[in-house]
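pls read this stuff:
=====
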Amino acid sequence: MVKANAYAMGATEVVPALAEAGCRHFYTAHTAEAVEARQALAGRDAAIYVFNGYWPSELPTLRAHGLIPVVNTIDQLASLRATAPDLPCALHLDTGMNRLGLGRPETEYLLARRELLAGLDVRQIMSHLACGDAPEHPLNATQLKRFSAIRSAFPDIPASLANSAGVLLGEAWHFDVLRPGLALYGGNPAPGHPAPFEPAVRVDAPILQIRELEPGDTLGYGATWTADRPVRIATVAAGYADGLLWASARGGAGYVGSVRTPILGRVSMDLIAVDLSAVDTPLEPGMPVSFLGAHLDEIADAAGTISYEFLVRLGIRFDRVYKR
């Protein structure tokens, strides 16, 4: 999965790295993202799928860049047959997400009229798990059963069901092609359950100023935090304009090395204040405070959101440094 600029990690860097690791299937939401991925591949052979459907107005772009639209409705299938029957495509069959894809009546219609696919170059059939992040949820088994029945009707077409969370559910959900997203970027797709993935992104933001507060001193917009003891704080050059969400103040933290430095007061557009009380090493302006990394789920939980949102909102002001 390399949609949303490879989860804000930078598709132009991530796509070639994945290709070098052996990836031959890439997925985007929009055609423009797929074009960017094709350009980043720089001649490497790979299939690039576009989730948002087949639209005849995009046909010249699809052909020019060798992109594969994912057909989501019977009407789109008919449109493809009428305008570009030779164009490779994929077929999304909804099994319980009720978002994109052929719904149950359309799926039943297709299964009863398989000749609708005759002569078309269908490269993949796919569905998407709604509750893979909750391994015990009964819908996982229900969707597996529904998709397995669809697969049995099209045994010669490669099948794909598992996202990152689906990979962890077990081999029964794997079929032919896996579609990991969050896992590639170090997130845990099933919070509260074990995950084998290493952190892939860390934000380092420099300290701009260090100051000592006395009991009774307030901090930040709205004076929402008041010191109840002498405390040393650092003002750090990052804020919600950079994707460190405003809601992170509700229990979020940065880190100096392995030492947790809780966020104090409100997160500003460009600044965050953190508590240095537990840091016993010398610090000075210019030194970094780190966010995310191994603590991605922690800060997402504090903000009342998911790690996906934290990643895709990382701002353009960050200088992205890639380590091979």
User: Anything to note?
Assistant: The first strand starts at residue 25 and ends at 28. The radius of gyration is 24 Å. The chain has a mean pLDDT of 96.
